[in-house]
């Protein structure tokens, strides 16, 4: 479902990224395939320096369909950035990718907090974030950070995912899955 970023995936990812429903919401925009290659190379190098964590999202056949990233890592916290190609919207890939990525961040890395800044105009992402039981709106509880991300033209809501909230969610999900398997057996 996830793999480390590789240059060989750039052509497929670039074609998906430039779709008008996707492009405005990509953090590192590229206006050409060559620029996308360069940005991807920089991303791989930044991960090697510990500045970010970036993964390619794959479909069930191993085809690249988007990326999921943790940017601006500092003191065990960072900002989530994810995008999927338009043909993969609404098919459950985003949640599967987030679960795999959060598991890596919280249990294999030293990340304790994941922030999401979502433009107020991005209704699709806002609704998706607010459906997740482990996400909390942090505009008031992290007011300084919320004010810092709203210095430009775009206005964002700030959401927070703590390791503790995600762990409780994962434990509940596992219990539900176990109960379902017992019923089916």
UniProtKB/TrEMBL annotation:
Annotated GO MF terms: acyltransferase activity, transferring groups other than amino-acyl groups
Source domain of life: Bacteria
Pfam families per the UniProt record, alphabetical: Acetyltransf_3
Species name: Anoxybacillus ayderensis
UniProt protein name: N-acetyltransferase domain-containing protein
SUPFAM superfamilies, sorted: Acyl-CoA N-acyltransferases (Nat)
UniProt domain N-acetyltransferase: residue ranges: 5-132
InterPro entries from the UniProt entry: Acyl_CoA_acyltransferase (IPR016181), GNAT_dom (IPR000182), N-acetyltransferase (IPR051531)
């Amino acid at each position: 479902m996830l793999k480390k970023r590789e240059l060989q995936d750039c052509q497929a990812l670039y074609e998906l990224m430039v779709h008008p429903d996707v492009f405005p919401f990509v953090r590192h925009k590229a206006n050409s395939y060559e620029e996308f290659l360069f940005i991807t190379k920089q991303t791989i190098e930044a991960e090697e320096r510990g500045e970010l964590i970036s993964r390619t999202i794959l479909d069930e056949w191993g085809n690249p369909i988007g990326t999921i990233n943790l940017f601006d890592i500092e003191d065990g916290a960072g900002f989530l950035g994810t995008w999927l190609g338009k043909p993969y919207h609404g098919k459950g890939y985003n949640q599967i990718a987030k679960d795999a990525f959060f598991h890596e961040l919280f249990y294999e890395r030293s990340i304790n907090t994941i922030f999401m800044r979502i433009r107020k105009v991005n209704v699709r992402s806002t609704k998706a974030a607010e459906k997740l039981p482990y996400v909390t709106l942090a505009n008031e509880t992290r007011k300084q950070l919320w004010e810092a991300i709203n210095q430009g033209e775009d206005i964002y809501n700030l959401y927070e995912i703590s390791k503790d909230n995600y762990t409780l969610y994962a434990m509940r999900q596992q219990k539900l899955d176990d109960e379902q398997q017992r019923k089916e057996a």
